[in-house]
Design a protein that fits this description.
Elements (H helix, E strand, L loop, with lengths): L1 H15 L7 E5 L4 H17 L2 E8 L5 H17 L3 E5 L2 H8 L3 H20 L3 E3 L4 H13 L4 H4 L5 E2 L2 E2 L7 H10 L16 H17 L3 H30 E5 L2 E5 H5 L3 H16 L7 H11 L6 E5 L3 E6 L2 E6 L10 E4 L3 E5 L4 E9 H8 L11 E5 L7 E4 L6 E2 L8 E2 H7 L4 H4 L4 E4 L2 E5 L3 E2 L11 E10 L5 E3 L4
Parallel strand pairs: 1-2, 1-4, 2-3, 4-6
Antiparallel strand pairs: 5-6, 7-8, 8-11, 9-10, 10-11, 12-16, 13-14, 14-22, 15-22, 16-19, 17-18, 19-20, 20-21, 22-23
């Protein structure tokens, strides 16, 4: 049995490309049968395959002297096997009261926070935890009771980022046989015998009753169901990722902008996942986002012609406006710093915060025609534009919008308030204040990248041409021209 379990975990590690030579794996050790088995398996494989093992033990301070004995036991076996160990004590009961969560959830949060910190401190490649097949079945069953979706019913992952579960496909009896074969001692947590906690009730009462009343091997059946559903889930996730790439308009560190029409045109099995992908991109994880939040987001996105916003957990705002939807971290919505730059021509204006360089030049119409062959109107979204220089009366400035701004859209019937133009063009409120403008007093010459002014257009009567070109700017001070679309 010793070699069989070692071979099983070794094959699993090779298939998943983990526990590689030269790496360090940090192992959570409580002193119970599962964690002692895992520690010994990794310790043994490490000597064979050339990776290192370190252990961490967290004393939950829930069982007085018994908890202290667990801590001492883990210290002894790590000393005996020559495994580096870090021990910590955390007041799980107090934390549970402060966060208004169960003791089990409080312990889990504190453990993984600790694991994460120690992993960074030791530069460990992985954190190994001792979940096994029965734990997986209990998780699947619990998630079914909670009304979880497909992800919850699929249970835990054997490899989840840097968290690995080498024993997830190992049955409890295999663990006990391994311990017996290697004459390994372990501690028994007396609280596991109490059925106050839901997991204990499932393990000690509900599952045995199901087996007794039906003869169905409940652990095997639930794990098999989870494994079958993972193929479906993975397919849907890949499909959602592909669609997400197609409908995402902009991605910043703390905000995601999506095409509203494309999002709502998808089946909810995909659109809901896209909301989760965007949430994860903004927050770093999918924690805190529940199905009710996803449903609410899709409902307001589907309300055609209506602009709405809702608050999500963790300070996230979901906003549907015009033909866009946004997932934004509230605390990152900052007031935009004022911008007002007077431009002398010729000049080159560098806007570092926008990573652009703007070139301003003036040519006579004859001079421009000689160098560029002909004078022609560029596409409205081109980043190179020509204007009638002599139509400018108050000087050129680069700025954001101000109260009282007016604009005569190219090809339009006449002037209108800039605010009204933005509304007509369905420019989201989140975007309006950061639109770069070239202005002549209160008259807008060019909304960069969006629309030029009819008032300043070049005609056959134009004598002097204002040439403006916007170039990308990078840290190496290299410029690349953007041509018209």
């Amino acid at each position: 049995m010793k070699n069989k379990l070692l071979e099983k975990v070794n094959s699993w590690a090779a298939e998943n490309n983990v526990l590689k030579t030269g790496t360090l794996v940090l192992t959570g050790v409580s002193g119970g049968a599962d964690s002692v088995c895992l520690l010994h398996v990794l310790y043994s494989l490490g000597k064979i395959n050339g990776f290192s093992v370190a252990a961490v033990h967290m004393n939950h301070m829930l069982r007085a002297e018994e908890s202290m004995q667990d801590e001492k036991f883990v210290q002894n076996i790590c000393e005996q096997w020559g495994i580096p160990l870090k021990t910590y004590r955390r007041d799980v009961k107090t934390y549970s009261k402060e966060k208004r969560c169960s003791l089990e959830e409080a312990g889990r949060i504190l453990r993984y926070d600790l694991f994460h910190d120690i992993r960074n401190e030791l530069n460990a490649e992985y954190i190994a935890v001792a979940h096994h097949k029965e734990d997986q079945a209990e998780t699947v069953f619990l998630n079914l009771l909670r009304g979880s979706g497909l992800n919850g019913i699929c249970g835990m992952e054997a490899v989840q980022g840097y968290i690995i579960r080498p024993l997830l496909n190992t049955e409890k009896n295999e663990i006990y046989e391994y311990l017996s074969y290697n004459n390994l001692k372990y501690r028994t947590d007396s609280s596991n015998l109490s059925n106050v906690h839901i997991r204990n009730a499932i393990r000690n009462v509900i599952f045995p009753q199901i087996v007794k009343q039906t003869g169905i091997p409940v652990t095997h059946s639930l794990v098999r169901t989870a494994d079958i559903l993972k193929a479906d889930r993975d397919f849907l996730e890949r499909l959602a990722e592909e669609n997400y790439k197609q409908i995402v308009i902009s991605k910043l560190k703390h905000s995601i902008e999506l095409d509203r029409n494309k999002l709502t045109g998808l089946d909810c099995a995909i659109s809901g996942r896209i909301i989760r992908i965007a949430w994860e991109a903004v927050t770093g994880s999918r924690k805190g986002l529940e199905s009710k939040h996803v449903k609410a987001a899709l409902e307001i996105a589907a309300e055609t012609g209506k602009n709405k916003a809702i608050d999500f957990p963790n300070g996230i705002i979901f906003k549907a406006e015009y033909d866009r939807v946004y997932v934004v971290k509230k605390k990152e919505i900052k007031e935009i710093a004022p911008l007002f730059i007077k431009v002398k021509v010729p000049s080159d204006i560098l806007l570092k915060e926008r990573n652009i360089l703007i070139n301003f030049r003036v040519y006579s119409a004859d001079e421009y025609e000689k160098t560029s062959n002909r004078i022609e109107k560029r596409g409205e979204k081109s980043l190179v534009q020509l204007f009638d220089y002599d139509a400018i009366t108050e000087g050129i400035n680069i700025r954001y919008r101000l109260p009282g701004d007016v604009f005569a859209p190219y090809g339009g019937p006449g002037k209108k308030k800039l605010k009204d133009f933005f509304i007509d063009q369905k420019v989201p409120k989140l975007k309006r204040d950061e639109m770069l403008l070239i202005a002549d007093g209160r008259e807008i010459i060019w909304i960069m990248g969006l629309r030029t002014s009819e008032k300043y257009k070049v005609t056959r009567f134009t004598k002097n041409i204002l040439y403006i070109e916007i170039n990308e700017y990078d840290c190496d001070k290299k410029w690349g021209n953007e041509n018209e679309d």
